[in-house]
Write a structure and sequence with these properties.
With about 425 residues, this protein is α+β, with helices and mostly antiparallel strands. The protein is built from 12 helices and 17 strands. Strands 3, 4, 5, 6, 7, 8, 15, 16 and 17 form a 9-stranded mixed beta sheet that branches. A 4-stranded antiparallel beta sheet has the order 11-13-9-14, covered by helices on one side. A hairpin with a 5-residue loop joins strand 3 and strand 4 (about 65-70). The mean pLDDT is about 95. The chain binds zinc ion (ZN). The site of zinc ion has 5 residues, from loops.
Amino acid sequence: MPSNPDRVIANLRELAALTSDPNGAQRLAFTPTWQKARDWLATKLNSLPTEWTIEHRRDAAGNNWVTLPGASPKSLVLGSHLDSVPNGGWLDGALGVVTALEVFTAIARDYNGRPPFTIRIVDWADEEGARFGRSLFGSSAFAGTQTISQDRGRTDASGIRLEDALAQCGVSIDSIADAQRERANAAAYLELHIEQGPVLETMGLPLAAVLGTKGVERHAITFHGQEAHSGSTPMRSRRDALAAAAKLALEIRTIATRHPDAVCTIGSLKTFPGIVTAVVGRSEATLDQRDLDANVLATMYREAQEKSTQFAQEEHCTVDWSRIWNIAPEPFHPALIDLCEQAIRDTAATSHRMPSGPLHDAAEVSRSGIPTVMLFVQSLKGISHNKIEDTREDHLHLAITAFDNLASRTIDWIRAS
Ligand SMILES: [Zn+2]
């Protein structure tokens, strides 16, 4: 029996009603409302047939696992995250978990509670990092890429330590690496997620197979000039640190548009002394560059550096760079991308492939060597992390049906591989 999209949508609305206020979803990780969402999921599991030998537990990093043992211990993992940002939307993360529950149930029913492979649902702990500033907490522990030493010192806005918030949820920060044990026997990981951007809506398409998550280069760039009186300093004598930064802000658009999916953003620019009567002596910019291709990313980084040096010289300034953060691109599994595209074509007749700009738990799973793919569904107006986040109901139907189809195809693929 195939998955029932109407039940998924009804469940999502039920979860939203339980965990939102007038400003949106409030399922912030390691808070009582998040716990309430997880308890809600547990009640849904309790209503499944008792003759199915379902195991439900948390791992050492607080990830929530539901397992139906199959004839083989090799497992198909379906998941996403129940946590949200403050004032978040009803679909980000929740769509993936609630659809995973539906598809898990459909598979269990199809095989009378004993599928050929073990089927697992995972609800990752703290994907958003909204409270402690550490995104992909649970999935990075699973992947073995987490940084306990850096995470230990983290606090939330009210000064509560991450370590203490974890302890309240029964997670010891010293043992989160034990979550890596969950990787054993994982043969494939599938995640359905809203796009959170405007690409599919612009193209008039409901669904896309995701090629991977883009790598990120994030830098602080400081131009040094000379503060000077705005009235007494002739134009030709100036060392204007803003002029150099402004040239770079325009140049990064040219740098990005040489590549079809690349993006470059100067999201912050501060000027000093920042008063109306002074030439800018120092400007501090941030640069965020993203692409799925590591070579493209490296080229864009080099070009931005070269151009910043050129513009600094033109304006008689100097420039220095310091890296804020970076992460490598994570391409998903080619065979699973093909299966995802076939599942989309079966369901929506037309398909598309696209990289993801935002990071996702799926990237950590893929980084740990488990074949992974994501399926995106269109986001209305491209808006997410906001209470107006939404997706057309007919598109949700297509997404849930295509994800069910992808899971069936992946079971066949595991069997054949
Ligand atoms: Zn998400």
